[in-house]
Each structure stands twice: as C-alpha cells, then as structure tokens.
Specification:
Elements lengths: L1 H17 L2 H13 L3 H14 L4 H13 L3 H14 L4 H13 L3 H14 L4 H13 L3 H14 L4 H14 L2 H17 L4 H13 L3 H13 L3 H10 L2
Length: 237
C-alpha cells in the first residue's frame, strides 16, 4: 500500500510538471474544495512557476494560506494578485477579509470599497462590509449595506439575519416589528438556522407573544441551543 501511495504521488508530481498554469490552478481549486490546502499549495506553487502573471493563482494561493493560518504570506499573495490584475475585485475582497480577521478595520474597509467599486453587483461584498461597519459602530451604514445585499440577492439569509439584529438593537416598537419580520424571512429561507429561531423568540418575548415565543424556543432547542432550553424552562410553563 505504501509503495502504491508513493507511486501515486510521484505520478501526480510528474503530471503536474507537464501541465500548464491554468490546469494546475484548476487541480488546486479542486483540492481546496475538499479542504486539502497543503496539497493544493503544491499545485499553486507550480502554477505560479509556470506563469508568474497568473493573478488567479496568486489569489487562490492566498486563500489556501489564509485557511492554513499563514496570514502574512496570504497578504503578500493577495497584494501580488492585485498588482497583476488591479481590475479584479476578488483579491481586494479576500485581502479585506483577512484584514478584518486581523482587526485592521480601516485597511479592510478601503479594500471592500475598492472591490465594490469594481463589482457593485456582488451581494456578498455588501454583506461582509456591513459586518465590518457594525464592528466600527457605523450602524446606519451597516444597515444600508445589508439592505443592498438583500436587494441584490433576496435569498441572502445572512443579510436578513444581520439586518434583523440591527433592528432589534434599536429597541423601538417599529424596529422590533421589523426585526421580527426579518428573522421570519431568515427561517423561511433556512428552517435550521438556529440563531434565527432563538433571536426571533427573544423578539416575540419583547412583543409579549408568549405562545409564539415558546414555539420558536422549542425549535431552537431541537437544533441544539442550551440557551433556548433554559429560556423555555423559564417562561414556557
């Protein structure tokens, strides 16, 4: 078996040596979909050796490095991808995500804005920038980004969820009703969205809709929420 594995790996390397940059990139992407990031790096390195101007390969290698926790190397690859292809939004977006992880919020915001300027039709750009704006306590701007994300993709459950949370935080009668409406939309899109059931229950408690709140808590409990279980035992008697 060990010899078989050895020969298989050797065959893959030999094939890789004969493949062009794009074929190597495609193989790496397949491995990344399987979360085999270390293996993907071998093909990405070869892809870049074959074509040092392959911006997609640098961007993909940045993603693999990010997943492996090698943040400094990932930043370098995203930056190289941007230098090669400054009109492609993807590397800006990925670099923004990494900078957000590192809590370099202003740098991340600048990259989100560049990505959005290049591809204003991509819903996830607004969704992720909205999360960052929330971290920066720019609540109204975050709300607009979540609304824009929903307008571009009405199936975007995460945008509905984040928007609902912002409405709930406002703590007015109108905003609480809007929170309820948006949490219900999340659940309509994904009946197993645990936090949506839990947060909807909290909204319903505020609205004094105890029976409905208990149903939502029961759903959240079924999905594994200990908090929902404790709340249900407290109020649903």
């Amino acid at each position: 078996m060990k010899k078989y594995v050895y020969y298989l790996l050797l065959w893959q390397i030999l094939v890789a040596c004969g493949a062009d940059s794009q074929a190597l990139l495609d193989k790496a992407r397949t491995l990344m979909q399987q979360e085999k990031y270390e293996e993907a790096l071998q093909f990405l390195n070869k892809s870049i050796e074959k074509n040092a101007q392959n911006a997609e390969a640098f961007n993909a290698r940045g993603v693999a490095l990010f997943e492996l926790g090698k943040y400094n190397d990932a930043i370098l690859d995203y930056t190289q991808a941007i230098q090669i292809a400054p009109d492609n939004y993807k590397a800006y977006f990925n670099r923004a995500e990494l900078q957000k992880r590192l809590k370099e919020y202003e740098k991340a915001l600048a990259d989100y804005e560049k990505a959005i300027k290049l591809s204003p039709q991509i819903a996830d750009l607004y969704l992720n920038r909205g999360v960052l704006l929330f971290e920066l306590k720019k609540i109204e701007e975050a709300k607009k980004d979540f609304q824009k994300s929903i307008a571009l993709n009405p199936q975007n459950k995460n945008a509905f969820f984040n928007l609902a949370n912002l409405y709930f935080m406002e703590n007015t009668e109108k905003s609480t009703l809007l929170a309820k409406e948006n949490f219900e939309k999340v659940i309509a899109l994904d009946a197993k969205f645990l936090k949506a059931h839990l947060n909807l229950a909290k909204v319903l408690i505020v609205l004094d809709e105890k029976e409905s709140a208990c149903k939502s808590l029961a759903e959240a409990e079924k999905l594994g929420s200990q908090e929902a279980k404790e709340l249900k035992e407290s109020i649903c008697k």
